[in-house]
Specification:
It is built from four helices and four strands; from the N terminus they run βββααβαα. α2 runs parallel beside α3. The chain is 34% helix and 22% strand.
Length: 129
């Protein structure tokens, strides 16, 4: 019974993920997936995608700690972490996860604000006279 650790990231959210062979239990920040995400069914489905693709949803236990960002970015970071951990857990899963784009870190982050601008690119209103 091996324990595998991986880190997933998205925007400013980070997910520390540990997976072990078990019965399909999930614990995120000490809560179950339903308690942690509430009624967000699409986001829950997105988190479980790597487990469903590799058919490990009932044979692997996931324990995760998330921090930073909002719940959606944390969920995507968790998905990335689970994917990376599964790839380390069994090398056969790597090709399945890679072909579905789950091992790629989504590098889009918020652009920084520039001086003289209201936001990153929004200029102050122009007045001709």
């Amino acid at each position: 019974m091996s324990k595998v650790y991986a880190t997933g990231k998205r925007k400013s959210a980070i997910a520390k993920v540990w997976i072990t062979s078990g019965s399909g239990k999930m614990s995120i920040n000490g809560l179950s997936l339903d308690q942690w995400l509430g009624g967000h069914q699409m986001i829950k489905r997105r988190v479980l995608q790597p487990l469903n693709l590799t058919k490990q949803d009932t044979s692997i236990d996931v324990v995760a700690q998330t921090l930073g960002g909002g719940y959606s970015a944390q969920a995507d970071a968790l998905r990335h972490g689970i994917s990376r951990a599964l790839a380390l857990f069994d090398n056969d899963f790597r090709s399945i996860l890679k072909s579905n784009g789950l091992l790629t870190r989504d590098s889009r982050v918020v652009e920084r604000k520039k001086y003289g601008k209201k936001k990153a690119r929004r200029s102050p209103q122009f007045s001709k006279r």
